[in-house]
Amino acid sequence: MSERIAVxxxxxxxxxxxxxxxxxxxxxxxTYGDGLTAWKAFQEELPELVILDIIMPRMxxxxxxxxxxxxxENVPIIFLTSRDEEFDRVLGLxxxxxxxxxxxxxxxxxxxxVKVLFRRVALGRESTAGPDEELLRIGNLELDLRRYTxxxxxxxxxxxVTEFMILHALxxxxxxxxxxxxxxxxxxxxxxxxxxxxxxxxIKRIRKKFVAVEESFDGVETxxxxxxxxxxxxx
Length: 235
Fold this sequence. Notes:
The structure is a single chain. By secondary structure, the chain is an alpha/beta fold. Helices cover 42% and strands 22% of the residues. The strands form 3 sheets. It has a 5-stranded parallel beta sheet with strand order 2-1-3-4-5, sandwiched between helices. It has a 4-stranded antiparallel beta sheet with strand order 6-7-8-9, covered by helices on one side. The longest helix has 18 residues, at 107-124. The termini are far apart.
């Protein structure tokens, strides 16, 4: 294992702890204390994954995310946010971040999400489909459980890892209601600082992405007072 990860975080203690945990897992790690320094380095060579704080001096994480997405759609980005930064967190996901973790977070959870993102990137390069048992098909929806990718009909729908996990939790039991708490546990199994509103934001983005492919998409249904369920489209 020799993937190169950039950690962009202005708090040295957090930066050093993340770097230590990643290096112990065999990753190569470059660390940066502000966004501008990181961006100058990225212009020379892009890392294979970026762990990115939002509030930083000289260039914040949102602006660095914008610049990264302008030159690469494929480099996975994980945001690190504080509990009270929900607006910035949602904006970061809309700008193209793949995932986020709220501070304080466990290194176990961060390492798990890093591994999932690298696995998705690696498997996404393969041209052959996985075994049928690793594909979930419901009507026009197809979820590839190895590559963490989704398709609607013949069109790929770009979901973040968390969005994929939430949609899979709904789609594997069509018609069954999942509460927001259940969806929190699916999308953030080790993160206790995720709010109901964050789940609502994820659902909103999932719907938006599928509606962009098919305007009449209504597969994710709100069950008021309870949560959400996936409904198979009718002919």
